[in-house]
Amino acid sequence: SQWEQIRDLLPGREGHVGGTAADNRLFVEAVLYRYRAGIPWRDLPPRFGDWKNVHRRLRRWCESGVIERIFRHLAADHDNAYMMIDSTIVRA
């Protein structure tokens, strides 16, 4: 599964330097939901937690290179199941 491919790349896992994050999967789901739905951060459903914390954590992961590392790992998958097409660029 996608989650199994990336979970060992994320900070906050068991045995990793720093604090252990019990909600890495929920956080990743929140970020994906926000971008899939195309909503502002403040409209993130409450089940994902406080939108400000989700945004802050994403910003930290971007600055530390975690997000780039995940995208590079998924892009190396030759299955291409993780490719996204932006409809603002592709015309039918």
Q: Mean pLDDT score, rounded?
A: 76
Q: Could you give the order of the helices and strands?
A: HHHH
Output the number of helix runs: 4
Which class do the helix and strand fractions yield? mainly alpha
DSSP E strands, number? 0
Which range does the strand content fall in?
A: under 5%
Tally of domains: 1
Question: Spans with pLDDT under 50 lasting ≥5 residues?
Answer: none
Helical content class? 40-55%
Q: Report how far the terminal alpha carbons are from each other.
A: 30 Å
How does the overall form come out from the CA principal axes?
A: globular
How is the main sheet built?
Answer: none
Tell me the Rg in angstroms.
14 Å
Strand-helix topology:
Elements: H1 2-6, H2 24-37, H3 51-64, H4 66-75
Describe it for me?
The protein has one domain. The longest helix is centred in the first third of the chain and has 14 residues. By secondary structure, it is mainly alpha-helical. The chain contains 4 helices and no strands.
Summarize this structure as a short list of keywords or feature phrases.
92 residues; mainly alpha; 47% helix; 0% strand; globular
How is this structure best summarized?
The chain is mainly α and 92 residues long. The chain contains four helices and no strands. The protein has one domain (2-75).
